Amino acid sequence: MPNQESPVSLAGMTNPHTHHSHPPHTLWSELPEGLADHLDLEATLSQPVLQIALDEAASTVTSEPSLIVDLGAGTGVGTVALASRFPTAQIHSIDISPQLLERLGAASVAAGVADRVHAHRVDLDGDWYSGLPRKADLVWAALSLHHVSNPAEVLRRAFEALRPGGLLVLTEMTGTPRFEPGDLGSGRDGLADRLTTNSAAHGSRATLDWSALLDQVGFAPIRHHQSALRADAVTGEGARYLARHLRSRRAQLVEELPMEDLRGLDTAIESIEADMSEVSFTSGRGVWVVARPELPVLQATAASDAAQPVTADRASGRQSSLGKGTIKADVVVVGGGSAGLAAAIALARSRRSVVVIDAGHPRNAPAEGAHNVLGQEGVSPLELLARGRAEAESYGVQIIQGRAARVLGSVDDFTIETDHGAHRVHARRIILATGLVDDLPAIPGVEQAWGRTVLHCPFCHGWEVRDQRIAILTGAEIAVHHVMMFRQLSEHVTLFLHEAADPTEEQSEQLAALNVPVIRTRVERLIVDGTQVQAVEVEGGSTFDTDAVVIAPRFNARTELFEALGGQREATPFGQQIPTDPRGMTAVPGVWAAGNASQQMAMVMASAASGVMAGSAVHGDLGFADLNRAVQTRRDAALADH
User: Which residues are in the Methyltransferase type domain (predicted)?
Assistant: First the structure.
């Protein structure tokens, strides 16, 4: 058994470690029958998410953690995994339920880690941290904080429990859970949607903006991954999970759903238990890795003279810390997408010291796959970036997760500060690979399906919607171009003018020649199921079935840092960008730009190519500067000898 410490009464405790159809703030003297087994089953299905969180924690800690706190430990799967991954750490595990803590104890004994696991039966809504050791290296919270009365307050206490520089790894539900098919195999159309909608009213905090809460408390962001739990009725574990899950939902909503829906649920459950169902369930999971900053928020306009820098070991390409918070490097790259990582790798392979600052929000994250990537067709955008980060780090690139909040200085003497003052980088050159923001039309449904079935690029996603029903929803000036591109991929293309002007006589002839219907009525909304567009609804209520929608958003590059250094953004017909020469050099000495920040239409491969070009150009620029300095030093020495 683990060491049982700090026992407290159940009276007033409000943090059961479950999120399955049970309202928060319930007194839990006993868990509902079968719930602990269900949590273990969910933990089995969640192993890929757990592995992501563990890998992120292990790759981010700067030294082996000695003290870890697990908030809402449940049956102990996370505690045991932490103890196994960090074999010298003491783990303090918190939960309110004696039954779950008993399971945690048995799991710890079975794994041979009971001597390092300390169980605390306490309430996360109470003074849970007063009985724990302070200055934890790592706080772990997996699917527990959405139960508490005040998640922000628990996060503040977690902040206080960490040592400066310590990590919080938070896993929470994201988005809307999704069942397939929509009738759950019962024949009741829309049953899954009604089940999800009604369940959402029962205390779930799955839609909390966890990034904003973490920022509000003062944590510095490091990484954010989006994953999912998936259960399929065709597997034994998935079927058991789904049957228990649907039974629980049914009991919760028995007074709210019509009798026909309740019978439909019974039919769905019976089919699952009889191994005759193909129902699947997907629930989003986000993993946030954040840190308690080592430095306070900086108020000075330049780096403190007392702050010692981190210098680069040119022989190894690695960086060594001479002090807290400040890093010195040849080049700082702002943005860790394809362009930024490619630039960093090009520089690091030439033994330049490089720091990449990345906020962790890639533009193409919603997409299922990246296309036109030679040799990597259809690769997940997040997987591609993970490989790129690993490759960059193998050459000594240091990657800082956070937002570049301030920049000052000039060539050979730039300073960039990340948010909350967590880091300060001093560099000779800057590459801005900050990407762009898609300014989407304000039509309900567009943002929900953006990157999946709401598209903008025929080359990025056209093949995936070939032969489908495609709605073009773009302004008149580009409408015919989009129609022409997508008409090559499908015969079922319709143009919706929405608020655009009527086509010219020439455009009308072109559209007629392509046999493309034109709908003049204003679009009210897109009808979307999850991320799948189903129809376009126009003013008056008429709907047009469709499988994909094409829009033309404005592409606005993130130019704030460039303008702070004295640069002037460039307006184009499609938005704004950073003007550069073909190598990526801007008009601001010492500043380059790459990727979508300077090339709005660049796809993944083109962005990476521009990053390589910019990185190579910066290396050459530094080389000539170093050469000129060496020549001048030699001349000065010769003059001194005379």
Answer: 69-168
Determine the Cα–Cα distance for residues 385 and 595; give it in Å rounded to an integer: 14
Nearest partner of 535 among 443, 450, 525, 527, judged by Cα: 527
Q: Which residue has the higher pLDDT, 195 or 297?
A: 195
Residue type, 507: Q
Q: Where are the domains of the chain?
A: 3-177+204-231+283-291, 310-437+556-633, 442-552
Q: What is the DSSP letter of 593?
A: E
Phi, psi of 410 (to 5 degrees): -150, 180
The counts of H helices and E strands in the chain are 17, 29
Q: Cβ(211)–Cβ(224) under 8 Å?
A: yes
Name the one residue in this structure whose structure tokens are 């089953």. 41
d(CA 260, CA 273): 20
Radius of gyration, CA atoms only, the chain: 28
- From 432, 423, 431, select the one nearest 331 (Cα to Cα): 431
d(CA 434, CA 41): 41
Q: Which CATH superfamily is domain 310-437+556-633 in?
A: FAD/NAD(P)-binding domain (3.50.50.60)
> What amino acid is encoded at 224 in this protein?
H
Question: Which has the minimum average pLDDT: 97-101, 531-535, 595-599?
Answer: 97-101
Prior bond of 181 cis (ω within 30°): yes
Tell me the pLDDT tens digit for each residue of 193-229.
888 877 766 555 456 788 888 988 888 878 788 888 8
Mean pLDDT over all residues of the chain? 84
Q: What is the pLDDT of residue 64?
A: 87
User: Which CATH architecture describes the domain 3-177+204-231+283-291?
Assistant: 3-Layer(aba) Sandwich (3.40)
Helix (H, G, I), strand (E, B), or coil: what is residue 507?
helix
User: Model confidence over 572-607: pLDDT tens digits?
Assistant: 888 899 999 999 999 999 999 999 999 988 888 999
The DSSP symbol for 168 reads: E
CA dihedral 491, 492, 497, 501 (to 10 degrees): 10
